[in-house]
Amino acid sequence: MVKRSSIILNVLLHFYKLKVKLEEIQREYQNLMAIRNEYLTLLKHIKIPKVEVKVEKIGEEFVVKVTCNKGGDKLVLILEAFDELGLNVLQARVSCSHFFSMEAVAVAQDQQTTDIKDVTQAVLKAIEKQGGEGMLVT
Question: Is 90 exceeded by the pLDDT of residue 66?
Fold first, then answer.
């Protein structure tokens, strides 16, 4: 027969282990909440760009600047849009660090009468194929 004092000691030991485990879970929860709050604070300060397309014509060259959220095949779609307009890209700079950013210099292949509005609309349409965000045209 098991002694009554032995049963009581086992129950007390089990309660103590549960209490320690509960304190451990509470500490972990508090750490996770602190991380969550820090993450939410950082998100408030991050500036996520909307789609911005700026096209300038300097002589025969078009200078096209695009900024938007990264993801998908934006570069390919934009270059296809240039091709459809008959534009040859002379120089391009692309970055996808935190968002998609592109600056390109292009000229019309056959001195076609392509204007700034046509280029802007073609680029916006290409970006919209990926699921457009709020558009800003300058």
Answer: yes
Cβ contact 108:87 at 8 Å: yes
Rounded distance, CA 20 to CA 134, Å? 51
Q: With bands split at pLDDT 50, 70 and 90, how would you rate the model's confidence at 47?
A: low
What's at 72, amino acid-wise?
G
Instruction: List CB contacts of 75: < 8 A, sequence separation 6 or more.
Output: 94, 100, 102
Per the structure block, which two tokens stand in for 71? 């993801």
SS (H, E, C) the chain: CCCHHHHHHHHHHHHHHHHHHHHHHHHHHHHHHHHHHHHHHHHHHCCCCCEEEEEEEECCEEEEEEEECCCCCHHHHHHHHHHHCCEEEEEEEEECCCCEEEEEEEEECCCCCCCHHHHHHHHHHHHHCCCCCCEEEC
